[in-house]
Amino acid sequence: MISKIQRRNKIKTRIRGKVSGTAARPRMTVFRSNKQIYVQLVDDQEGKTLVSASSKGIEEGTKIEIAAKVGKAAAEKALAAGITEVVFDRNGYLFHGRVKSLADAAREGGLKF
């Protein structure tokens, strides 16, 4: 029997084989811990993080509401940096709950994916 972490790493590897970011269309990757949620826009060709946002400092609301705020903040920073299109990398997590909330808020904020 494989653990949750091993299962996520297996899915993550499969996704990363297909998803790659460029300067024109960076990879939007999500990391979710028990308390926080983080998002980065990464240019995989250069190996650089272009934009990042996290839930550190945001304390009001449920975890799903906080994830939506982080998604909106990431979209604002990306648009300020001149990025409008991204490739979404759910990083092995299921696309529901906090991950879905973050993605929907980023779309509302103006990012296309």
UniProtKB/TrEMBL annotation:
Gene3D superfamilies assigned: 3.30.420.100
A single BP term in Gene Ontology: translation
Record keywords: Ribonucleoprotein, Ribosomal protein, RNA-binding, rRNA-binding
Family matches, as Pfam families: Ribosomal_L18p (PF00861)
GO MF assignments: 5S rRNA binding; structural constituent of ribosome
One term under GO cellular component: cytosolic large ribosomal subunit
Residue ranges the record marks as coiled coil: none
CDD domains: Ribosomal_L18_L5e (cd00432)
Job of this protein: This is one of the proteins that bind and probably mediate the attachment of the 5S RNA into the large ribosomal subunit, where it forms part of the central protuberance.
Subunit record text: Part of the 50S ribosomal subunit; part of the 5S rRNA/L5/L18/L25 subcomplex. Contacts the 5S and 23S rRNAs.
Protein family: Belongs to the universal ribosomal protein uL18 family.
Protein known as: Large ribosomal subunit protein uL18
Lineage of the organism: Bacteria, Pseudomonadati, Bacteroidota, Bacteroidia, Bacteroidales
Gene behind the chain: rplR
